[in-house]
């Protein structure tokens, strides 16, 4: 199996919704075009930023297929297919494969606290059910309660060639640094937290999976490009700016404000699905003013 690691900024795409809260696949192509036109290297739907756990399996399959169709081979598509059970994870991953995705990504199961043996059993069931299809590991213990250790990542990468990479959003870089040498550097390491992009990339990680790149792709791609070019002063400046921008977005609820910012940029992706809540319009206006004060270079804001 040959799988090329992604190097660049991967957007964990938001999921467009209609005013009544139903999914809105028709709004995916404009979002995809917006991101690809601004230098995004990969599209990653249905993760945390994509509200994946809030959708039914049928909805997730619809969004996955619509995303693959909209991207049309221009950049890789990694579908997040993780679920609480191995059976549902396998079903969603098989659908991702059959619909033409380049890879899937599987987060640790959530709610029940699992020891390493249970996590290993879960992942081995998924890898063995889908031989040859590239699958990333996804670690976000703050939300799932279950952490992927470096030892488990290395065992799975050793035993399954189609264990192609790791997206780690734990904030702990040690596992990523311990695994980015696997397969002579062909194991795709993707940093999750936006505030650690410079730290991760400067130590040799491959990619950033940046939630903020949904609404602010220019800033995040600029940061990646500065690191790739060895322009450390510019990279530091952009990372500081991203930190300040992130604080503004977090102050208004994070994901709901990202969707509001996209709407301000001319892309109506709707609101968030309950129990998530959207910020009041006055909050959105105040945040837009703060972003302008930070001199974020977004002409359409």
Quick synopsis:
Helix 2 (57-71) packs parallel to helix 3 (86-98) and helix 10 (217-228) packs antiparallel against helix 11 (232-251).
Instruction: Please state how the strands of the largest beta sheet are arranged side by side.
Output: 2-1-8-7-6-5-4-3
Could you say what the CATH topology is called?
A: TIM Barrel
Briefly, what CATH class? Answer: Alpha Beta
Any idea what the shape is?
globular
The main pleated sheet reads as:
8 strands, parallel
H/E order of the elements? Answer: EHEHEHEHEHHEHHEHEHHHH
Beta strands, count: 8
Folded structure, characterized:
The chain has 301 residues and is α/β, with parallel strands linked by helices. The chain is 46% helix and 11% strand. It has helices at residues 28-37, 57-71, 86-98, 116-129, 141-144, 150-159, 174-179, 182-185, 197-202, 217-228, 232-251, 255-264, 281-293; strands spanning 8-11, 42-43, 78-80, 103-107, 135-139, 163-168, 188-191, 207-209. The chain has an eight-stranded parallel β-sheet. Helix 3 (86-98) runs parallel beside helix 4 (116-129). The longest helix is centred in the last third of the chain and has 20 residues, at 232-251. The relative contact order is 0.13.
């Amino acid at each position: 199996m040959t799988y090329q690691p992604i190097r660049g900024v991967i957007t964990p795409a938001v999921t467009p919704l209609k005013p009544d809260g139903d999914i809105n696949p028709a709004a995916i192509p404009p979002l995809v075009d917006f991101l690809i036109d601004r230098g995004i290297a990969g599209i990653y739907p249905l993760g945390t930023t994509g509200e994946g756990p809030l959708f039914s399996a049928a909805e997730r399959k619809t969004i996955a297929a619509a995303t693959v169709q909209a991207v049309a081979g221009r950049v890789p598509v990694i579908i997040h297919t993780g679920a609480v059970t191995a059976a549902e994870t396998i079903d969603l991953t098989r659908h991702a494969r059959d619909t033409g995705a380049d890879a899937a990504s599987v987060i640790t199961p959530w709610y029940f606290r699992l020891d390493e043996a249970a996590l290993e059993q879960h992942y081995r069931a998924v890898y063995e059910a889908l031989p040859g299809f590239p699958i990333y590991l996804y670690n976000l213990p703050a939300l799932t309660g279950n952490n992927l250790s470096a030892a488990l990542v290395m065992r799975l990468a050793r035993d399954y060639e189609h264990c192609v990479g790791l997206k780690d959003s734990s904030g702990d870089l040690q596992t990523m640094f311990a695994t980015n040498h696997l397969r002579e550097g062909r194991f795709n390491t993707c940093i999750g937290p936006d505030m650690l992009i410079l730290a991760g990339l400067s130590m040799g990680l491959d990619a950033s999976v940046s939630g903020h790149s949904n609404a602010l792709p220019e800033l995040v791609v600029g940061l990646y490009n500065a690191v790739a070019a060895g322009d450390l002063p510019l990279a530091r400046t952009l990372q500081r700016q991203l930190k300040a921008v992130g604080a503004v977005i977090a102050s208004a609820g994070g994901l709901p404000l990202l969707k509001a910012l996209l709407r301000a940029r001319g892309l109506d992706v709707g609101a968030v699905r309950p129990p998530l809540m959207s910020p009041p319009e006055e909050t959105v206006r105040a945040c837009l003013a703060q972003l302008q004060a930070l001199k974020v270079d977004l002409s359409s804001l």
